[in-house]
């Protein structure tokens, strides 16, 4: 749902999971604002609120990604740490096939 005069977009997911985003006016220079009228959702919005208040301009897409990441536990989804995933992939790519054989106890004679 969107209220054009208020620059507000409401988002609804699972029952009881809702939040809204107030968009800044183009000429004003304000930041976005996220909030929820559900007390169950408010603690999960802290990550997105911290991100918005940090330095630099943010896009609506970036903010919605942070809200989704924040709401993952509330939605019953596993918490995904992007940095840990990238480090894991880097470790996997650097391994050599011979090292795997030696670790498994396979002799190469």
From TrEMBL:
* Chief subcellular location: cytoplasm
What is a single Pfam family found in this protein's UniProt entry? DUF4581
Q: Which InterPro entries match?
A: Maturin
Q: Any idea where this protein resides?
A: Cytoplasm
> What name is this protein filed under?
Maturin
Annotated GO biological process: positive regulation of megakaryocyte differentiation; regulation of signaling
What organism is the protein native to? Otus sunia (Oriental scops-owl)
What PANTHER family is this protein classified in? MATURIN (PTHR32008)
